[in-house]
Design goal:
This protein is an all-alpha fold. 82% of the residues lie in helices and 0% in strands. The protein is built from 19 helices and no strands. Helix 9 packs parallel to helix 15, helix 11 runs antiparallel to helix 12 and helix 17 runs antiparallel to helix 18. The two termini are 29 Å apart.
Length: 483
């Protein structure tokens, strides 16, 4: 399937990822209340961390390896079963580790019934094999299946979640979506591969599998583990504030990363065919897409984020407003980081370098968590997340410059900064002048959208921005491939 069609289906999937939580989460947050939402989010984030242990590096290594052999069914089946076998081993380790934690960590004792449900999530996440279909670039199937299951999930939420005590049922329904997706995937995958352990080999994949797994665990120290740490050193209310702010952020990031997700198997394929020029062209296009989406989004979140969040979840979540504003620049930071790490370093098999950089970020997150989280609560967790991502971004940019003489297009980035600075001022003035309601949100959206269109047409594509960019001093001087 063409990259254009893949992007269309990925965009539909992304819109659904944006739309369905927008429908469900406001209802659930109002029905269950802050404390119960905090409990569910605490348990789910803890279970998700063990999910990452079980999956290790399969989400990246699996896509890369499947993409390289997808034209040969026999080789595809052998590669798939080898990778699945590795994941089985790590899943058993994760289940044992979670079970041990349930009975040795006193803080987890009140949540054991939910954690048993979490073990079910661990088991069926093994069978989800989403990485296989991404490697096959079968985004049409992924989208259709996901939409069907999400519709059933949303209907179930409105049918069965009626009062605060239903928070356990809410978590069970969330886990059931994983079960259903996994069962459908296993059945459909038999059209492409044969399930047989004959001839499998773990040796070609286990090193990258472990390296990328440790990388994912490190990176999630400052994403999924932040709420867990927050729950240990503060309370579930603070967890509720932080996860509510990040929930909105994750929805927005899903839109941005949809392009990155479909690009990874394509650039991996280009490199395997030795098409260097086309590879760097795709990287430059990815940067342009990141900049175009990030700047207006950040302005909107910085100015109108609290009112948007209030519309999203209702009263009682005022403690989420500051964390949301703190993490708003992550739209740009993580977007750039995804290009550097996923599209360049991982596509070029620089797994060890990625692991080292993630260790630096995880270490920074650990130190800052100890220093800030207990005293600052949800806001402290937000600061930790932003700081850790910045460390990863800088480390990755330095390595790529050294290896490939390629840098982030800093002159282009400076042009966007200069172009959108007036919009931030205009939006702040409107925010102070208008009532804090849905009308203000709509006006801000219209103004920012109109400004973005005009900026793209009249400034960012014009020679004016080039002259502005050339006047900026940068720390890095691009030698090749940059715009």
């Amino acid at each position: 399937m063409s990259l254009k069609k893949n992007f269309i289906f990925s965009s539909i999937l992304t819109v659904s990822t944006y739309l369905f939580p927008l429908i469900v989460y406001p209802y659930v947050s109002r029905t269950l209340g802050l404390s119960n939402i905090g409990i569910v989010n605490f348990v789910d984030n803890l279970v998700n961390y063990f999910v990452f242990v079980s999956m290790m590096g399969i989400s990246t290594v699996g896509v890369r390896e499947i993409a390289s052999v997808r034209s040969d069914r026999q080789q595809l089946s052998t590669t798939f079963m080898s990778l699945l076998s590795l994941t089985m081993i790590s899943t058993v380790v994760a289940i044992v580790a979670l079970w041990t934690a349930m009975y040795t960590v006193p803080t987890l004792a009140p949540f054991r019934d939910l954690l048993y449900v979490g073990i079910v999530k661990l088991v069926f996440n093994l069978l989800l094999i989403e990485w296989f279909f991404v490697g096959m670039e079968d985004f049409k199937y992924i989208t259709m299946r996901s939409l069907l299951v999400k519709c059933i999930y949303v209907a179930s939420i409105f049918l069965f979640i009626k009062q605060p005590s239903d928070y356990k049922l809410y978590f069970m329904l969330t886990v059931i979506t994983v079960v259903v997706n996994a069962l459908i995937n296993i059945v459909y995958s038999r059209h492409f591969v044969s399930y047989s352990f004959r001839g499998i080999s773990l040796k070609p994949y286990y090193k990258a599998f472990l390296i990328m797994g440790i990388y994912i665990l490190f990176t999630n120290v400052y994403t999924y583990l932040n709420p867990v740490w927050l729950g240990f050193v503060t309370n579930t209310d603070e967890v509720g504030y932080f996860t509510t702010a990040t929930k909105l952020h994750h929805i927005i990031m899903a839109v941005l990363l949809s392009f990155s997700n479909i690009l990874y198997p394509r650039v991996s394929n280009l490199l395997s065919e030795g098409k260097e020029t086309e590879f760097w062209d795709k990287i430059n296009i990815a940067f342009e897409a990141i900049f175009l989406f990030s700047f207006p989004t950040i302005v909107y979140l910085l100015v109108a984020g609290p009112e948007l969040l209030h519309l999203f979840v209702g009263d009682g979540f005022e403690g989420s407003y500051l964390p949301l504003r703190i993490i708003s620049p992550l739209v740009l930071i993580i977007g750039i980081e995804q290009i550097l790490i996923i599209q360049i370093l991982l596509a070029r098999h620089q797994d060890t370098i990625v692991l080292c950089n993630s260790f630096i970020g995880a270490l920074a997150a650990l130190v800052l968590n100890i220093l800030l989280t207990a005293s600052m609560g949800a806001a402290g967790s937000a600061v930790v997340w932003v700081a850790a991502e910045c460390v990863i971004l800088v480390a990755s940019a330095l390595v790529i410059f050294k290896l490939y003489h390629y840098t982030i297009p800093l002159r282009r980035l400076s042009g966007y900064c200069l172009t959108y600075a007036p919009l931030l001022v205009i939006s702040a003035i409107l925010y102070r002048s208008l009532d804090k309601d849905t009308t203000m949100l709509a006006i801000q959206f219209i103004v920012i959208s109109a400004y973005t269109i005009l900026a793209e047409m009249l400034v960012l594509r014009n020679r004016v921005v080039t002259l502005l960019q050339q006047s900026m001093t940068s720390f890095f001087r691009p030698k090749d491939h940059t715009n």
